[in-house]
Amino acid sequence: MKLYPIKFDPILKEKIWGGEKLIQTFKKKSTKNNIGESWEVSDVKGDVSIVSNGDLKGKSLKDLIKTYKGDFVGNKIYEQFGEAFPILIKFIDAKTPLSIQVHPNNELAKERHDSFGKNEMWYIMDSDEEAELIIGFNKEVSQHEYVQALEEGKVLDILNSESVTKGDTFYIPTGRVHAIGAGTVLAEIQQTSDITYRIYDYERVDKVSGKQRELHTEQALDAIDYTVHKTYKTDYNLVDNESSTLVHSPYFKTDIIQLNTTVVKNYETLDSFVIYMCVDGAFELEFESEIYTVDKGETIVLPAQINQVSLKSSEAKILEVYL
Fold first, then answer.
1. Rg of the chain's alpha carbons, rounded to an integer?
2. In this structure, are residues 220 and 213 in contact, taking their beta carbons and an 8 Å threshold?
């Protein structure tokens, strides 16, 4: 069966901090009111994405890789990762703040959890006027000073807060302490991993269990990078109707396309799948005379075998993700 641009059913996650925007604004289907995450493309065990369009509808992401191998993911990617899909794509709605957390690097994650580490990035799609997030430290601290601040309930005093607005971008390598703040909707691209060490959770109580959520204080200690940076926000330049670099890391590459006309995208030399995340507006994708409409908050995947598509919009912003 011939490959074509693939859409997947979103995997919706209830969260203690989740809200209604993924349902109300992005039209995700759920009867719940606290949907915090929409997993758009996932190969996480127990949460593998299922195709929602075309002749392959009902097939899983794992099925596609097993059947099509390098034609789906790219030959170099198949050689490196086999039947594991290397990245996880999400939309996130934080009605209240997420816990302050850190992710282990590849070595720690492999040793402790037989998993990839979790390098990730955020692109802010919408935010309330006072929205902030936490990323990194605001001053040099030792591990001892960090533990002392944690024990005294003063950890927020040593963490860096950033005001956020639509279009802001942040790269969060493993080891960097971080938390999404209340009133923030964002796109997240990350390694395929669900390993998180929670270090502070505002003493919240889970409604189901009636208990505070588990903290991972000891595990986090040697996972944290205590380095202070002058800036944590990613600078980038937008060029109309071209792919502009956002974040290029060893684990994924993300560009942004500010689209207001019709452009032809050629991927003949790329040897990788391409994922489009519509983060503003809407666009039409044309492949072999077939039109695929992608609205804000939707995602579509181009198998590596597809060399050329055209994109059309009067106004859209698209994250273009590949390896």
1. 20
2. no
pLDDT score of 117: 83
The neighbour count for residue 233, using CB atoms within 10 Å, is 12
The phi and psi torsions of 96 (rounded to 5 degrees) equal -125, 170
Query: Using CA atoms, how far apart are residues 36 and 218, in angstroms rounded to an integer?
Result: 27
- In angstroms, what CA-CA distances link 41 with 66, 140, 149, 171? 16, 37, 38, 19
What would be the CATH architecture of the domain defined by 11-221? Sandwich (2.60)
The region that residue 225 occupies, defined by phi over 0 for left and psi between -120 and 50 for alpha, beta otherwise, is beta
| Cβ pair 104, 118 in contact under 8 A | yes
Mean pLDDT by 10 residues, the chain (323 residues): 95 95 93 93 96 98 98 98 97 96 90 88 96 96 94 94 97 96 97 90 79 87 93 96 97 98 98 98 98 98 98 98 98
Superfamily of 243-322 according to CATH: Jelly Rolls (2.60.120.10)
**Domain layout of the chain by residue ranges:** 11-221, 243-322
Q: Give bridge partners of residue 94 from the DSSP assignment.
A: 18, 184
Q: Is there a common fold for 11-221 and 243-322? A: yes
DSSP 97: P
CA separation for the pair 234, 164 (Å, rounded): 12
**Residue whose tokens read 């002058």:** 230
Q: State the amino acid at position 173 in one-letter form.
A: P
> Which residue has 């691209």 as its token pair?
189
Residue 50 is classified by DSSP as B
